[in-house]
Amino acid sequence: MQLSMPQGQTEIRHDWTNEEVQALFDLPFNDLLFQAQLVHRQNFDPNEVQVSTLLSIKTGACPEDCKYCPQSGHYNTGLEKERLMQVEKVLEKARKAKETGSTRFCMGAAWKHPADKDMPYVLEMVKGVKELGLETCMTLGMLDQSKADQLAEAGLDYYNHNLDTSPEFYDKIITTRTFQDRLDTLHHVRESGMKICSGGILGMGETATDRNGLLIQLANMPKQPESVPINMLVKVEGTPLENAEDLDNLDFIRTIAVARIMMPKSHVRLSAGRESMSDEMQAMTFMAGANSIFYGECLLTTPNPETHRDLKLFKRLGINMEQRISESDETQEQAIMNTLQKQQDDQFYYEA
Ligand code: SF4
After folding, report:
1. Which residues pair with residue 50 across a beta bridge?
2. Which one of 104, 177, 182, 197 is the catalytic residue?
């Protein structure tokens, strides 16, 4: 039976204030989740989750000093550094991602910004992945207008560049670049016509007001990001945040719900930190409006739940993977069968 739902919010606003956002966070938990569900149902199929695969194409030795990141060259985390991956290897991983049902392939490089000499390889990767029929996403650090234009021309659909946290808390987490640098890159990405994937990380010792500030920055952009990853800090030994205090899980779920209400048409992505979340916690985040995940065994350099755990959870929750318009149910069914078969043949999805 179809329930008739009261009206939720679909209007996209760019004038959120701290008081309004705080009022949402202050709602009783059930009321907040109900509002988020209303907004979610008016803008998306509530039982569909978009699935992306993330691959690290260049790992470690990053000159930036992001305090949460094991890839920063400033900290000793024992991470094995890797040079830029060969184009053919990247395409091989992308083919596997497609076989297992991913619709978007994200490639991440630990750079301050891409060097001119690396651009031809990166552009080849974009073209190759695109030819496989996958949506393409990259995260390569800062971009000037010329590099953003080259990527857009090669067919890059999304550029990921997280704001990480509020402008006020930013220099407690990163000192090698400024919040304005982030906004400048996002401006170049928009100017080049690409879609934006931008979000942040929770549990880094920020205050509730900082969480409001992050969401306000994202929602009040001239055009809201199409994808908004909300990460839970993964505390990696050797990074300055290895002993950060745990964030209350309910506050994480509340943040997802508030993000859903403030950015009604964006995909809110449950991102890093999912590995340590119970199935029940993940189910609550989907209820709060998260409708995108990373899929595959490796989320850059932090562990991600094995693909079959995701498939089982989707099945238990009656969630379908969002398809690209050209693909049918049989394609999805086949992708799931391929994954299950592959897991019997081969214990590991990604060895990276
Ligand atoms: S988050 Fe990105 S920019 Fe920061 S240290 Fe890690 S790889 Fe470098």
Report:
1. 292
2. 197
- Sort strands 200-202 and 227-232 into parallel, antiparallel or unpaired: parallel
| Cα gap 352→349, rounded to integer Å | 9
Could you give the CA distance from residue 107 to residue 303 in angstroms, rounded to a whole number? 16
Tell me how far CA of residue 158 lies from CA of 17, 52, 181, in angstroms: 28, 12, 18
Cβ distance 213 to 258 under 8 Å? no
CB of 102 within 8 A of CB of 132?
A: no
Tokens representing 278 are 């119970």
Sorted by sequence, the CB contacts under 8 Å of residue 80 that are 6+ apart come out as 59, 60
- How many whole angstroms separate alpha carbon 197 and alpha carbon 162? 7
pTM above threshold 0.90: no
How far does the chain reach from its first CA to its final CA, in angstroms? 46
Residues with CB under 6 A from ligand 1: 62, 64, 66, 69, 71-72, 110, 141
Which residue numbers in the chain have pLDDT < 50?
A: 1-6, 299-300, 325-329, 332, 336-352
Does 69 qualify as catalytic in the annotation? Answer: yes
Residues 156-165: pLDDT tens digits?
A: 999 999 999 9
The b/e string for 245-281 (b: 16+ C-beta within 10 A; e otherwise) is eebeeeebbbbbbbbbbbbbebbbbbbbbbeebeeeb
